[in-house]
Amino acid sequence: MSVDIPKRRLSSILKPFANGGGLEGSKLNGSFSQNKVRFDDLAVEAVLQDALQNGQLQRFEHLLAEIKAEQFDDDKFQQVIVESKRCVHLLNANFGMLVEALLSVNWLARNESSREVYKGFVIELLVAQGNYTTLAVSKLVQLFLPRDEDKEGWVRGVPTVATAERFEPVHDLFVRLKNVIPMIFDVILVQLRKQFPYFKRATHVVCGYVYNTLRMTDHSAMFTE
Fold first, then answer.
1. DSSP 13
2. Cα separation, 223 vs 225, whole angstroms
3. How far apart are CA 120 and CA 180, in angstroms?
4. Contacts with 48 (C-beta within 8 Å, 6 or more apart), sequence order
5. Is the pTM of this model over 0.90?
């Protein structure tokens, strides 16, 4: 007697993205297939098309896991981001988990060319898929909070040159976003207020957030209006 084994439904992985942020984080349902998939085989657009058209989720699961793990060098990082940029038209709400993973990577730790590629991806994503605006801005504002290990980079509330330079790619990205999406300024203001470190945070963390908020006024005339 044969037994039919039901296929895992596409909706078990491609959860709709909740407009407004989805900041609690999404998790994969079910476990990974035990079959190995090489990361070199995970071309982003091909993986997305395979999931949408054929309901094949194994490669999507592995792509998502690899992006979350960030165990690749700068060249591979750029490859993934460039491929993701080319298929932003496919990154609708069904692929919210993948977008959240891409917006959560530690891109500031990458080399300069990788950071430029990443900024281009974020701009293209928000132009094509505006429902991710709150999530993206929230992730960027979070970068204004210095890490615990950055304490030595703040002397009497003032950042060292190296510490200040670390935040400049974020400010540059905000400038570019406001040039192409003027209404994003309202979202930025909401997130700046929402994420202020009011409670039980180290002094250098509060100083860093205030510094970056004031730094925004240098390139945002609307702050002074």
1. T
2. 6
3. 12
4. 60, 87, 90, 91, 95, 98
5. no
Q: Cα separation of 44 and 56, whole Å?
A: 14
Nearest Cα residue to 41 out of 80, 11, 98, 94: 80
pLDDT, position 218:
82
- Using CA atoms, how far apart are residues 185 and 84, in angstroms rounded to an integer? 25
- The position carrying tokens 């950071």 is 115
Mean pLDDT in consecutive groups of 10 residues from the start of the chain, 225 residues = 43 54 39 46 85 88 93 94 96 94 96 98 97 97 90 87 94 96 94 91 91 87 55
Chain centroid offset of residue 92 CA: 15
Determine the pLDDT at residue 221.
62
Number of Cβ within 10 Å of residue 19's Cβ equals: 14
CB 173 within 8 A of CB 119: yes
> What pLDDT, on a 0 to 100 scale, did the predictor assign at position 202?
87
What residue type is assigned to position 185 of the chain? Answer: F
* DSSP-derived 3-state class of residue 155: strand
CA distance 174 to 191: 13
CA distance 196 to 213: 10
| Residues 63, 83 contacting (CB under 8 angstroms) | no
- Give the integer Cα–Cα distance in Å for 6 and 174: 46
Provide the token pair at 20. 């407004």
